[in-house]
Amino acid sequence: MSLLTHDLERPFEWAERPARMSKARKVQLKRVALRTLAVLSMGSVLAALIALKTAIYVWHLHA
After folding, report:
1. pLDDT tens digits for the chain (63 residues)?
2. What are the residue boundaries of the structural domains of the chain, listed by start?
3. In sequence order, what are the residues at sequence separation of 6 or more whose Cβ sits closer than 8 angstroms to the Cβ of residue 58?
4. How far apart are CA 36 and CA 33, in angstroms?
5. What CA–CA distances, in Å, run from 63 to 2, 46, 49, 56, 59?
6. Verdict on whether the full-model pTM lies above 0.85
7. d(CA 50, CA 18)
8. Phi-psi region for residue 19, left (φ > 0), alpha (ψ -120 to 50) or beta?
């Protein structure tokens, strides 16, 4: 038996059982996901502003 394929013969137990997650836990995870998305989008806006200020600075430096 190959070391690369010996786990492929087992059934996927995690796919067969239903997910048991409480409603409160789902709401909490959704809230965390939305906050994470907000932080990442604010970070990308901040990075874009820094890049714009840098480009303006370099443009004025060479003028």
Report:
1. 566 666 666 666 656 666 678 889 999 999 999 999 999 999 999 999 999 999 999 999 876
2. 1-62
3. none
4. 5
5. 66, 26, 21, 11, 6
6. no
7. 47
8. beta
